[in-house]
Amino acid sequence: VAAFTNARVDWKETPEAHVFKADLPGLKKEEVKVEVEDKNILQISGERSKENEEKDDKWHRVERASGKFVRRFRLPENAK
């Protein structure tokens, strides 16, 4: 869960909806799962795979985390 624990998420409410925007660089849309649990918990989850390593590769810097992430947000009772 450490990979994106600090993933930035913006949440705003409009008269029509609750709008979430998340910065998840490097992930494809199909690698991110968005679901509602227990009627009012929005969960955003996914996984970034580790980069393929070749035997002769020599990394100089690794700053992009790999692994699973989960972010949960409690929606207001009146959210649909």
TrEMBL record:
Superkingdom of this protein's organism: Eukaryota
UniProt entry keywords in alphabetical sequence: Stress response
InterPro entries: A-crystallin/Hsp20_dom (IPR002068), HSP20-like_chaperone (IPR008978), Small_HSP (IPR031107)
Keyword DNA repair: no
Pfam families reported for this sequence: HSP20
Residue ranges occupied by any SHSP domain in the UniProt entry: 1-80
Family stated for the protein in its record: Belongs to the small heat shock protein (HSP20) family.
Name of the protein described by the UniProt record: 18.1 kDa class I heat shock protein
Organism annotation: Noccaea caerulescens
